[in-house]
Amino acid sequence: MRLVGVQFILWAITGLYMVCLDIHFIHGEPLAHPQSAPLQLKDISYSTAQLLADYPDATDIKLVTLLQKPVYRFRSAAGQRAIHVVDAITGEPQDLLSQAQASTIADDAYTGTAAINTVSPLISRDASGALNPLWVVSFDDVASSTLYIEQQSGRIIRRRHHYWYVFDWLWRLHIMDYDDGENVTNGWLRLVSLLSVLAAVSGLALLLLRLTLRKQAAV
Fold first, then answer.
1. Where do the H-state alpha helices sit in 81-135?
2. Which residue has the higher pLDDT, 76 or 218?
3. Which of the chain's ends, N or C, has fewer CB atoms near its CB within 10 Å?
4. Distance between CA atoms of 90 and 190, rounded to whole angstroms?
């Protein structure tokens, strides 16, 4: 039962950390402003009709502002990139973001006052398993705030800091999944949960037995 006792302590410590910190803060939401800016519709000369004529399989079309200019952001089954960005004025496809452009986006979105520390490329995988090139922009603050920006779309898709990494590891300890922290029904958790219930029931039974014996001895 020592294993159960150790896990009880871990559950208490990890649970305390998770309930004391706001989940929105853990997700890094306060690190960056929403990526929205006023659109000057009078400047848009490349219409949605033209876009659909050039990209007939385009879906999830959005008109947004990227680096102070209007662009269409959409998904397409054709081509190597799942996400496409097209200039809403000229209709020209946009290249992948450069390091300098990623720095500008991150600096504009960042809610703090620290300077950018590092900007480095990263190849990740999206939900479909396709390769997704990113720029990882880290700021020189206490929490080492970091923004992950898609090179294809310019979107900030992740916000990270030290508190999130601590949360991530404590979550793995909490659910006893020491790999990626995604399996909340793993065998270890089920086993220790069962042993915990048995320990609690046996402890209650022993308490009741002791109280009964003490009462009988007093009679």
1. 99-109
2. 76
3. C
4. 58
Whether residue 190 has pLDDT greater than 90? no
- Encoded tokens for 131: 């390769």
User: Residue 99 pLDDT more than 90?
Assistant: yes
Separation between Cα atoms, residue 163 and residue 144, nearest integer Å: 9
Residues 6 or more apart whose Cβ sits within 8 Å of residue 58:
51, 52, 74, 75, 76, 84
Q: What is the 3-state secondary structure (H, E, C) of 74-88?
A: EECCCCCCCEEEEEC
Is 23 buried (19+), middle (13-18) or exposed (0-12) by CB count in 10 A? exposed
Residue at token pair 């020189």:
140
Q: 17 is written with which tokens?
A: 């950390």
Locate all alpha helices (DSSP H) within the chain, ordered by sequence. Answer: 2-20, 23-26, 48-54, 99-109, 162-175, 187-218
Selected residue with higher pLDDT from 108 and 191: 108
The predicted model gives 8-31 an average pLDDT of 90
Query: Is the pLDDT reported for residue 79 higher than 60?
Result: no
Find where tokens 């990209």 sit. Answer: 55
In DSSP terms, 135 is beta-bridged to: 121, 149
pTM, rounded to two decimals:
0.81
Task: Report whether 149 contacts 155 (CB < 8 A).
Answer: yes
Pull the structure tokens for residue 155.
Answer: 């979107």
Residue with tokens 């989940």: 23
Helix, strand, or coil (residue 90): coil
pLDDT of residue 1: 59
- The domain limits of the chain are 2-14+168-218, 29-160
